[in-house]
Amino acid sequence: MGYFDVPDISYTRYTNRQLAAVPLAVLAVALLILSGSFLITGTPVPLGMDFAGGAELTVQTTSSQAEIEEAFSVEPDSVQGIQAPGVENQYTVQFAGVEDQDAIQELSNQAEAELVQDGDNEIVQQESTASPSFAAQTQQTALLGLGVAFAGMSVLAFLLFRTFVPSIAIVASAFSDLMIPLAFMSIADIPLSLGTVAALLMLIGYSVDSDILLNTHILRRGGDFYESTYRATKTGVTMTVTSMAAMLVMGIAATLFGVELLASIGIILFVGLAADLMNTYLLNLSLLRWYKFHGVRS
Amino acid sequence: MSANPVGFVKEYWRILLLAIFIAFALVALFIPGGIMADDSLVGDLEEDEANQSVEERMTNIEYGIGLDGGTRVSAPPTGMMVDNIDLESEQHSELESSLYTELGLETADATVRHHEDEDRYTAEVFVDDVSAADFAAVIAEYDADVSEDDVENGVTQDTRDEMIRTIELRVNEAGLSGGQVYQEATVEGSYYIVTEVPGMSPEELRELLSDRGDVQVVAYYPDEDGNQTNETVLHGEDDFSRVGVASYNDEHGHNYVPVNVDDTEDADGNSAASEYQAAMNEYGFTSEGVQQCGIQDHEAGEFTFDHDQPQWCLLTVVDGEVVDAHSMGDSLGNSMASGDWANDPTFEMITPTQQDAHQLAVNLESGALTAPLDFDRQQTFSVEPALADQFKTYSLLIGILSVLTVSGMVFLRYRNPRVAAPMVITAMSEVLILLGFAALIRMPLDLSHVAGFIAVVGTGVDDLVIIADEVMDDGEVSSQRVFESRFRKAFWVIGAAAATTIIAMSPLAVMSLGDLRGFAIITILGVLIGVLVTRPAYGNILQRLLTDK
């Protein structure tokens, strides 16, 4: 079994423009996807039940998946079987963007009436509904929460480093860290839920970790730029890759078990952390190198 | 090492602090009763339920509905209000009756409150089919300054407090412990009433919340001209001083709720009981009207108000619907006629079925819901206990898998168990301390908290990697001084990272985003405990292991 080593990237071979081009191109593509999706569907990412209103039911039934899809007056967005150890016949049924409050209320009754009971188990095991107006409220609150968190993080970054370029490097890479997973959600059709919002906020925290580490090593320690960078990279990449591995395992396990909240947190953080690796060590680093060699003197 | 105990404490205080925290967490988690023994909650449980739960529970951790089963319903109160109305005190009840008559409202659908501390009045209506303009117009008759723009959506804090109290009483009456009722503010400044009840299905909870529960006893009798008239003689929680439990009368074979009518006398020497007695005598219930009520078809559960004979009936009316109609009994009539009844004012409110009796008792005890909840704007979350149990197992499994992954990565990276093993142990002790803390403050754990724990392990390991790399930087840790200086450098990064995480999470911790609050609170607490206690201790452990070869 191979050991996990952090490679020594020879940054000297590339110019700042070359380094920054890759993450900026990816960010541009991400923004393009988000605005395209906004133009086509009205929202940059698909909204889940929490933000668009609707219902999510977990049902236990011996009816087949096709029968479940037919059982409701509203066509479900998805019916997903749960593959957990020792569990059979459980499905998660999602309905997002249902406008009619009465129709939402009726869904669980329809499940009880149309589906076949599995032994003594209750048919509707989990029911989560939100009326469109409640969901609109949630959406507003979540947007505000994300905005405040991002603004707070930006202010703190400026307070910590008190110089423009290193601070804006942190803010820029955190911004990109949020946009890339959002674009991923848009492509992979992962609806925005409370869980994914939690993941995005968590991402703000995680993404700043490695940026602060890199900035501190380069700006606050003596020694050669590349030597400092190598040390910061070694620590930072270890951190991020470890977190990515944990999140991937959590995302996969929780998806199989049908624990939606943990699944979305895991998957979004995995994608976001991967984006963070690129943003920190290409975008942030090129900005810092420019600042260190050109910015300070001018 | 140094034999001097002071020196030892000075050098290893971080580890000692961690040990103390872990010890506290273990006590809080595993010793029944925990650190702050509080039996009052257990005392509320049914006897057998309490025994059962003690057997089942290995730890003092409390679970929320996501991990224990139950239902949560959030919905805003229906209604609108006008604040800061300028009124003369004698206009108080005039305004209220104007609202009823001019807006055509049913009983209990409007109220005018006087806030004595600031000497201002608020008027509220609890229906959604009255326009703001009409509402303002009625008030403008009394205070010309009020216009349509002064009408706000929502109800007063007093109304919400009363609703919360009423719902709490109803949940308790339903015999389920652990229910919680609270309000949550939204960004726009409106409020939701949130009710969480373990072990209740969404249908049951919605039914409990949707009944207004306004109980009246109405006298139905022929007036002087022989026309049948309705007159409310007893109303809601105001007129009843004590409500018994739903019972069954074996002798006469009916279900009933024993009640005491309030006999507290006011300044004029009148009480609800004496007034009720006087009304019964005046309307003829205790003389010609005794046993004269035949409007209810008990078999079919129907009422006929189309009859030839004059009728003397006492109608039990809940939310405007007649639940039961019965006549004045012989003995009760006699004691009222003689005036003795008011000294011991009890009677039985008869109901058609046992369920009705129970419902009536709950409504009388909890009082009417001041404003109805608006279920068009509701959110429901409900988990069956069986699935909640599965979620507990999954959470544990997912947690273990994540920790194993992290451990594996750390071992692969450092190849040195002396560095990696304490890292894993420190990260896990953070979760332990957090669990202990949650048990201590009786925070009910849900899936969102589990996500928080995993996030804490994630940031924890990040910080430990930073400490390890920094402390082991440039070879041997030769002296305490070198260690301290390197540790300080690492601590700066960790502290800065922790501060950003806390800032990023704090909006969630205060906003009402349901599930996410738990996640944010656990993450913030975890980061704090991590930065202040466990992660510094790891530095110490590493120092000891690396220098003491």
UniProtKB/TrEMBL annotation, chain A:
Cell membrane is among the record's keywords: yes
Broad class of where this protein is predominantly found: membrane
Domain Protein export membrane protein SecD/SecF C-terminal as annotated: residue spans: 121-292
GO CC terms: plasma membrane
Domain of life, per lineage: Archaea
Record keywords, A-Z: Cell membrane, Membrane, Protein transport, Translocation, Transmembrane, Transmembrane helix, Transport
Transmembrane segments: 20-40, 142-161, 168-188, 194-214, 235-257, 263-283
InterPro entries linked: SecD/SecF_arch_bac, SecD/SecF_CS, SecD/SecF_export, SecD_SecF_C, SecF_arc
UniProt membrane topology term: Multi-pass membrane protein
Subcellular location: Cell membrane
GO annotation, biological process: intracellular protein transmembrane transport; protein targeting
HAMAP family to which the protein is assigned, alphabetical: SecF_A
Subunit-level organization: Part of the protein translocation apparatus. Forms a complex with SecD.
Function: Involved in protein export.
Recorded family membership: Belongs to the SecD/SecF family. SecF subfamily.
Protein name as it appears in the record: Protein-export membrane protein SecF
Gene: secF
Automatic annotation (TrEMBL), chain B:
GO biological process, one term: intracellular protein transmembrane transport
InterPro entries found in the cross-reference section: SecD/SecF_arch_bac, SecD_arc, SecD_SecF_C
A Pfam family reported for this protein in Swiss-Prot or TrEMBL: SecD_SecF_C
Membrane topology classification: Multi-pass membrane protein
Localization: Cell membrane
SUPFAM superfamilies attached to this UniProt entry: Multidrug efflux transporter AcrB transmembrane domain
Bilayer-crossing regions: 12-31, 394-412, 419-441, 447-469, 490-510, 516-534
Domain Protein export membrane protein SecD/SecF C-terminal: 374-533
A GO CC term assigned to this protein in UniProt: plasma membrane
Keywords: Cell membrane, Membrane, Protein transport, Translocation, Transmembrane, Transmembrane helix, Transport
Entry-linked Gene3D superfamilies: 3.30.70.3220, Multidrug efflux transporter AcrB transmembrane domain
Domain of life the protein comes from: Archaea
Main localization of the protein described in the UniProt heading: membrane
Assembly and oligomerization: Part of the protein translocation apparatus. Forms a complex with SecF.
Task performed by this protein: Involved in protein export.
Family: Belongs to the SecD/SecF family. SecD subfamily.
HAMAP family the UniProt entry points to: SecD_A (MF_01463_A)
PANTHER family: PROTEIN TRANSLOCASE SUBUNIT SECD (PTHR30081:SF1), PROTEIN-EXPORT MEMBRANE PROTEIN SEC (PTHR30081)
Protein name as annotated: Protein-export membrane protein SecD
Native organism: Natrialba hulunbeirensis JCM 10989
